[in-house]
Automatic annotation (TrEMBL), chain A:
Note accompanying the cofactor annotation: Binds 1 zinc ion per subunit.
SUPFAM superfamilies cross-referenced by the UniProt entry: Terpenoid cyclases/Protein prenyltransferases
Any GO MF annotation of the entry: zinc ion binding
Known partners and oligomeric status: Heterodimer of an alpha and a beta subunit.
Protein name: Protein farnesyltransferase subunit beta
Catalytic activity, as annotated: L-cysteinyl-[protein] + (2E,6E)-farnesyl diphosphate = S-(2E,6E)-farnesyl-L-cysteinyl-[protein] + diphosphate
Originating gene: fntb
GO biological process, one term: prenylation
InterPro entries tied to this protein: FTB (IPR026872), PGGT1B-like (IPR045089), Prenyltrans (IPR001330), Terpenoid_cyclase/PrenylTrfase (IPR008930)
Domain of life: Eukaryota
TrEMBL record, chain B:
Listed name of the protein: Protein farnesyltransferase/geranylgeranyltransferase type-1 subunit alpha
GO CC, alphabetical: CAAX-protein geranylgeranyltransferase complex; protein farnesyltransferase complex
UniProt KW keywords: Magnesium, Prenyltransferase, Repeat, Transferase
Composition skew (Low complexity), residue ranges: 319-337
The organism's place on the tree of life at top rank: Eukaryota
One Gene Ontology term of the molecular function aspect: CAAX-protein geranylgeranyltransferase activity
Homology family: Belongs to the protein prenyltransferase subunit alpha family.
Entry annotated with the keyword Aminoacyl-tRNA synthetase: no
Record flagged with keyword Nucleotidyltransferase: no
Gene (UniProt): fnta
Cofactor(s) annotated in UniProt: Mg(2+)
Region annotation (Disordered) ranges: 314-337
Pfam families: PPTA
Amino acid sequence: MENTPPTLRCFNENHCAELFPDDGVETVTSEEQKKVERNIEEVLSVYKQIHSVPEPTLLREQHYQYLKKGLRTLSDAYECLDASRPWLCYWILHSLELLEEPIPAAVASDVCQFLAHCQSPTGGFAGGPRQHAHLAPTYAAVNALCIIGTEEAYGIIDRERLLDFLRSVKQPDGSFVMHVGGEVDVRCQNWEGGLGGVPGLEAHGGYTFCGTAAMVILGKEHMLDLKGLLRWTVSRQMRYEGGFQGRCNKLVDGCYSFWQAGLLPLLHRAFFRDGESELSLQRWMFEQQALQEYILLCCQNPAGGLLDKPGKSRDFYHTCYCLSGLSVAQHFGNVDLHREFILGKEENRLAPTHPVYNICPEKVAAALQHFHRLPVSGQSSAPSSSSHQQPAPAADGELS
Amino acid sequence: PRPPLLCRKLSGLYFIEDRKEWSDLEPVPQDDGPNPVVKIAYSEKFTDVFDYFRALLKNDEKSERAFTLTAEAIELNAANYTVWHYRRVLLQALEKDLRQEMRYITAIIEEQPKNYQVWHHRRMVVEWLSDPSEELEFIADILSQDAKNYHAWQHRQWVIQEYKLWDSELEFVERLLEEDVRNNSAWNQRHFVISHTTGYSDPAILDREVQYCLCQIRKAPHNESVWNYLKGILQDRGLSSHPGLLERVLELKETQCSPYLLAFLVDSYEDALETNNTRATLNQAQEVCALLAQVKDTIRREYWLFLGRSLESKYGPTAAPQSDAASSDAADQQELS
């Protein structure tokens, strides 16, 4: 395990050399960026004044209380997420598992029963009881159930109906609509090297992550221009803030700590499988320390919960993805080769997360083990290993 | 416990339960199960509207009152895709005036331009009407408020492609780039328009674009978008294939250097190595990688170190060795740069 270097990158005397140079040409983009940088400068300055020895601290207890409460009740500010309640379950449960806080059995069972109420009779999961099934809450519900990982949880999923649902939203061009009569969700690598929401659109961190992870699941990541994708992704880390932006020339946001930084473990593994000999054995290809500094110093609400950037409100989405990004930045490698780099106290350490599914690797392994034994629809017994299409590399829960 | 009917009427709040037109319908409360999780503390109005919405959905009622209720539900949660779907079913079943629906969705998008469902709904209405005539102007208005709204750009690309409205789009892009040369969405749209119309194969077009980029670079050298675009349009042909470009970039390096310029140099050298692998070129590439990793782009240190090692591994073993003439040329170059 590496020790924290004595000084923080953001308190380096040359750090201000990384501020955005507007070349004397002021535009909306440069002005917005400068505003954020001044804000961050202020935050760092205040921190330095309060702490004579900088030691960024993850506010575990505060985050835990925030999450524990949210898992049960939410204020009416969450009415806008009334069609995303499985997401709320996933964001909160994943945050708790990263913090290594156990989920009491009763709560876990309650989540299972609630998600059962969100399952559609025709298959898939909806945003809430009696709503229509939709791919996004389906992803969230399945992930949440796998985090819980009990027989009860696995048993909630009606696999046959789910397969019907997936077939019903599959399009002739290979893409999926998000729900019956809904918008198309196709990813495409563009001239920038990243992926957009549909062919032709600007490269964007969220879509790039989802598309790449999907390709990894399918074992088809080599169909992407990996070098172009790598260059685009690493270019999204902000030189001053340390966090990541979602698109070129836009602002830093804590959630991209996962969507963008989370690509680097995927790409590392893809390059490795491609036979690349020059990969580092110690680090991901992004500045792990700088990202940890951004998250710990700029993205924590003192009352619990994490956020986009200073000045923004906390929410469970940002809590999930800031913590997920922090975990990626702390843990390099896989089960066989693992190097940790924890900024600040050892207590800042989070559990590692699986870069494809963004739940903990043990949960991935357990779920795969459970479901691989079960018959696929239309077959009378569990599939033998030879009838599997090339088990997706990520499927074994291992990262090598 | 809810206050009695009289008090609610006095405070001016009319809930659906009070309206006679709904008296035949039994509201359906939300069934979260016995021990709910992520339970939202809905306002009374929210609860009312959705209790009645669930009742309508359950009965599959296709009526004017149902249609009116969808608007209330949408106002309370515009992200409820079930409500939007139902509204579309009603629009067709009741043969509603789609022009009016366009006015409605225009207003909603102006209020909530970052919502997925509203844009998808607009697309459906445009398709049903087969009328895209308002779209470019409407989207331009949304972009005037947020020039990078992803949904707006997605809708714009769909309209242009579906209805072949390419004619004035490059002009529109140029206008946006004049306003903000750092607008990456506009650069993307530039690529979109050109690749779907003239393409980049015509050398006159390609050169026009390269000159446009160099012009924008001179004005604002630290603009990543323009450098990415320049690379993006040249990479399939090879960065070193454009005559004179490397020289121009090396000139710019003197007075308008940036990490993006240096990265472009690395890419150019790498491309040159593909066709003519020499130790001199490889050294040049390594030098810039090292400069980026150690001084000019340290946030990407790990990446530049990897790239350096990669280049060495790929080209090093078979690089044409430097002759004496070549090594003194290389030394001269190093002195100049």
